[in-house]
User: What shape does this take?
Amino acid sequence: MVFCAINTQAIAWTDWEAETPGGNSISDNWGPKTLIVQDSFVLQGLKEWYFYESHIIGTYGPDYDENNRGFFIYNETHHKLDTFNVESNWISAIDQKELQPSVWTRWYSGDWTSISFTTIFRSIIIVLLLWMILRMLSKHKLLQKRKAMVLFGLSVLTLFIIVKCLLNFPQSI
Assistant: This one.
């Protein structure tokens, strides 16, 4: 009885459904990851994807066969799905529709809305670094003597904050 309860709870923890930036959803409810549009199944077996300018771009296929992989571009505004069997055709379509992010491509293979342990750990590190730098800045003599070290610390902190913001932003830029 206890074994059954533990298994049921484990299944519930791994199930997820998240809303895409365009108002559709992607789910993994004890089966293949599925793109759902207006409460109807559209594409099953999603592998990885990214969001860019009202589109979802990614790959799909069965878990057991990497060679049987397909590619897709889904326009969330016009509800149009384009699938490709050949990667070069998919890349050409991405280039033609200008759907290649120039700065940051956020690839996903799972729930992008959940907070993980690493996110919490990074946040703690950022807060500790900020506290340490502010403490150092409060002592003016230290700022004057070790200006290079303070500037290095501030640049590292700025980099962490930028990465943290980009990690929490689902769209590619």
